[in-house]
Amino acid sequence: MVTERLTGLDASFLYVESPTLHMHVSMTAVFDPSTVPGGYSFRRLRELIRSRIPLMPVFQRRIVEVPLRLGHPVWVDDPDFDIDNHLRRAALPSPGGMRELAEFAGDVASRQLDRHHPLWEMWIVEGLENGKLALIATMHHSTVDGVSGAELLGVLFDLEPDPPVQPPVPEHTPDTRLPSNAELISQALVTRMLEPLGFTRTVWRTGQSLLGIRRVRQSEVGPKGALPLTAPRTSFNSALSGRRRVAYAAASLADVKRLKNATGTTVNDVVLGICTGALRRYLDAGDELPDIPLVAVVPVSVAPDLAAVRGANKVSAMFVALPVQEADPIKRLDLIHEGTRGAKEEHQALGADTLLNWAEHATPNVFALASRFYSRMRLADRHRPIANLVISNVPGPEFPLYLGGAEMLAGFPFGPVMDGMGLNITIMSYRGVLYFGLLACARAAPRLWDIAAAIPAALDEQLKAAGLAPETFPMPLHLGPGMPSPATWAGAAPSSGPGTVAPSEGAGTSSS
């Protein structure tokens, strides 16, 4: 019996999960089936996905808890794996627009994944307007982070609609039994015997890191990052319900790059500036604009620094101030640029592996009980927010992708929301466009589409303030009422086909 123990960070995403806190990441991708050789068929698409699963053994493993939670859970092959437990088919009601797709995606995001099976599911959604298709893919955060999730989904995609036939991949034959309780307990006890030495080393390294952060903080020169528990309370900072709401937005990556070049900032700074401008409009419309900055948790991929470290999640996080109280969009961008510089310096002083090391020593029972108590007692409503929201930026490909021959037009990623932080904005670049996936607790952000609609307007506001005119290419699809239509995005370069945009570099390096 081959097992793999989860790392502490991967396991923590299982421990914190509750009926109202769902720890999965997802993506909505929209496709044009007119490029499928011979025409679209769900049966053929199902067979394609089934044939690719052996290339991704992670899709055939499930969680097994250690008795009495004496240690972190383990991954094992699912002896009863059945693709029909994971791949489903649905159709949207008329008119099949992006609003209807978002409602369906929100319903999918509102349900926890079944831990008796591998922790993923995919929905092939038909009935979109103009004959389009959608894929809604969901995986538990214990299995992937934003970057590794995109890589896994990439195994399903091709670079051309009719790729050469590949040799069949040998079927992965899972073990026929699950590990016994005795095996799980003995492995957990062996691991625990080694913990005191690792804990002592973690305490020592963390102490050195905190001294480094203190030196950065006490320096009279240089920018400073935001601090947790300094965020103002807003309507989306509350205890969670179990229901989720989804919205989509998009912006031109070419315009973002022109703006960062004109202002001496970075792509990530401009993206944070766009989110800040959109949130300013949203909060002002709700008569709740604070007079101090919001605080965003910005996940950062540390995979390049920790390539040899096992585990699905290799992430850390920065706290970045979003100056929504500032009316001038260029001043907002300058403040964000300084704040992200300070946050990066403090993150470097803390160390890329600090979060991973401390998570390794989390006590499963205490962690899980504390999380459920916090959610059940709605304690997030009783103290100042740790932060206001999560904003994550994931680089994507700048070339077309195909699923079963259908061209991918757009991809919207989503990360989870947390108690007290009921809004998550995740961004992915694809073929010259930044796609924003907004996911929120339905009770905390009932006007989520208002934030989405404010995103392109916030970019236009920044461009105008910098003396720049938008130079965008046609968008491949219309996101719905209140959003720019594909025709209004036309710019200097003509499209050579459905969804064609100018190639450009990726958008960022952080992950959800």
Describe the structure.
By secondary structure, the chain is of the alpha+beta class. The protein has a domain at 225-352 and 378-398 and 410-467: Chloramphenicol Acetyltransferase (2-Layer Sandwich), CATH 3.30.559. It has twelve helices and 15 strands. It has helices spanning 8-15, 42-52, 98-109, 146-154, 181-193, 195-218, 253-263, 267-285, 329-350, 354-360, 364-376, 448-465; strands spanning 4-5, 24-32, 61-64, 74-77, 87-91, 120-126, 133-140, 244-252, 294-301, 315-322, 389-394, 402-403, 406-414, 423-430, 433-441. The protein has a six-stranded mixed beta sheet, sandwiched between helices. It has a six-stranded mixed beta sheet with strand order 8-15-14-11-9-10. A hairpin with a 6-residue loop joins β6 and β7. α1 runs parallel beside α11 and α7 (253-263) crosses α8 (267-285). The longest helix is centred in the middle third of the chain and has 24 residues, at 195-218. It is globular and about 65 Å long. The two termini are 32 Å apart.
Quick recap:
The chain has helices at 8-15, 42-52, 98-109, 146-154, 181-193, 195-218, 253-263, 267-285, 329-350, 354-360, 364-376, 448-465, and strands at 4-5, 24-32, 61-64, 74-77, 87-91, 120-126, 133-140, 244-252, 294-301, 315-322, 389-394, 402-403, 406-414, 423-430, 433-441. By secondary structure, it is α+β, with helices and mostly antiparallel strands.
